[in-house]
Amino acid sequence: ILKLMEGVQDRKAHFRSVVSYAEPGMEPVMFAVEVHGRIGHEARGTKGFGYDPIFYVGETSLGEMEIVDKNKISHRAASMKALKEWLRGRQLI
Fold first, then answer.
1. Where are the domains of the chain?
2. Which fold has domain 12-89?
């Protein structure tokens, strides 16, 4: 990806997580959350997986973040939290 993006000025990017819940007799519900950032010019960090070393939020790549810090902004954590709150609000958990 870094090679393909050489010379590209607009490096804005986002991750999106969508979690759905369905059961018989009800409309499915979806919880979509995005984390916005940019594709860096270099890979930094060894934490995480996938695109984490090249996806930057501010001046830090997700690959450099400790898991507790990453989870504070994580699209996956936020979409699961939204589902959990929805289930709690309906006393399903």
1. 12-89
2. Maf protein (3.90.950)
Amino acid code (one letter) for 10: D
Burial 65-92 (b: 16+ CB within 10 A, else e): beeeebeebbbeebbeebbeeeeeeeee
**Residues linked to residue 38 through DSSP beta bridges, in sequence order:** 12, 56
DSSP string, the chain: -TTTTTT-S--EEEEEEEEEE--TTS--EEEEEEEEEEE-SS---SSSSTTGGGEEETTEEGGGS-HHHHHHH-HHHHHHHHHHHHHHHTT--
Question: pTM of the full predicted structure?
Answer: 0.82
| pLDDT tens digit sequence for 34-88 | 999 999 999 999 998 999 999 999 999 999 999 999 999 999 999 999 999 999 9
